[in-house]
Amino acid sequence: MATKQLDFFGEKKRVQGGRATTNVVMSAFVGGNAEVFPQILSLHVPEGSKIADVTYGNGVFWRNVDLSKYTLVPSDIADGVDCRALPYTNKSFDAVVLDPPYMEGLLRNNQKHKAGNGKFSSFRKYYSNGDETNNGLKWHAAVTDLYFKAGVEAYRILKENGVLIVKCQDEVSANRQWLTHIEIINRYESLGFYTKDLFVVVRANKAGVSRLIKQRHARKNHSYFLVFVKNPKNKKG
Questions:
Q1: 123: three-class secondary structure by DSSP
Q2: Beta strand pairing status for 4-6 and 222-230?
Q3: Which ranges of the chain would DSSP assign to H, the alpha helix?
């Protein structure tokens, strides 16, 4: 007979019983975001949830999701909605999805070195008017600053025990290794989030490098989905 105990949030959960199976969601995948994201939703976001995708872009994450099961509210910087200043009321969403640009060239002070192609072009135009940026944060610091401020907004609009799903990637910037996913985890936990899960996504094709003279760091061919839960009891300070 199954027994129950309280989980992290004081809710009852089954700890015994059930049946043996290999049909479970795994923590590492070789493939694309569209294949991985539905599995993360099925595990962490209940059907019927109201979800704000605040960096919707072209909606790649949602291509294989049955949208009839959720209330999706998409927005993007191209539509004039900044993930750092969302037009939503406090505690109005069950879940938030965040996938900002994680290229360190986003706000470089050299126009030629900025991330300016594809979905990053609208971010570059909006955040720095498409010009060189000589003031404020740049390189990797500009990327993490964007994540940190977006995390504050996500915390504000999430209901208690609401879920925040974040896509990110570590990077080498200015010849230094930056473990971006750890930086995000540390900052978000200080805001009052609990880090509930982590998924590793490995690209199926081999990444290339242009103008390589001597390789000093491993080329990144994986990224992360981080899953956080809003828990005010976890807030520091």
A1: helix
A2: unpaired
A3: 33-44, 120-128, 139-157, 180-191
What pLDDT digit, counting tens, does each position of 90-139 carry?
A: 999 999 999 987 655 555 555 555 544 444 455 555 555 445 444 456 67
| DSSP at 117 | S
Beta bridge partners of 163: 95, 229
Write out pLDDT tens, residues 189-205.
Answer: 999 999 999 999 997 77
Sign of CA dihedral 69, 71, 77, 80: positive
**How many secondary structure helices (H) and strands (E) does the chain include?**
4, 11
Q: How far apart are CA 223 and CA 101, in angstroms?
A: 12
Backbone angles phi, psi at 162, to 5 degrees: -70, 160
Across the strands, what pairs with 194? 229
Please tell me the distance from the alpha carbon of residue 188 to that of residue 231, in angstroms, as a whole number.
11
Rounded to 5 degrees, φ, ψ at 8 are -55, -30
What's the sign of the alpha-carbon dihedral 134, 140, 143, 147?
Answer: negative
Helix 139-157 and helix 180-191: axis angle, to 10°?
40
